[in-house]
From TrEMBL:
Species this protein is from: Gordonia caeni
Protein name from the UniProt record: Ribosomal protein S18-alanine N-acetyltransferase
Keywords carried by this UniProt record: Acyltransferase, Cytoplasm, Ribonucleoprotein, Ribosomal protein, Transferase
InterPro entries membership: AcTrfase_RimI/Ard1, Acyl_CoA_acyltransferase, GNAT_dom, YpeA/RimI_acetyltransf
Gene that produces this protein: rimI
NCBIfam families: rimI
Amino acid sequence: MIVDALTPRDLPRCAELEAQLFAGDSPWPLAGFVGELAAGYNHYFALRAEPGAPVSGYAGISVLGPAGGHECEVHTIAVVPEARGTGGGRALLNALLQVADRHRAPVFLEVRTDNTVAISLYESTGFAVAGVRRNYYQPSGADAYTMVRPAAAEVNRP
């Protein structure tokens, strides 16, 4: 598995995967991916079996705020079921955290409260639960934890 930059040609596959993986919670349409990738403050990555292979996962993070006061927000991390358990999710998360580390920024994200695998992954990289957002995911009404990871200087990651 490799992680590289998500490109415009990857976006139809991302929208297809999004519809499968997040069918119950308002999946992003192709236009959403196009807008996200075009925004200069966003960084998106692809997970592939090998260079040039179709996307088997994707992740994105934004860098917000003024220089010296940046904060980062994870927008999404998704991995196809057949690639789960192979370290792909961790590899994508590490790519996102490298972006935040370059900016010495804390990182925020939301995760379904019932997604114990993702929560464990996030906790293993320095995230902690900061609060709960009731009915965050729509239309399912699932709750989300807001999690935060302090700026890299304050975290000891493996």
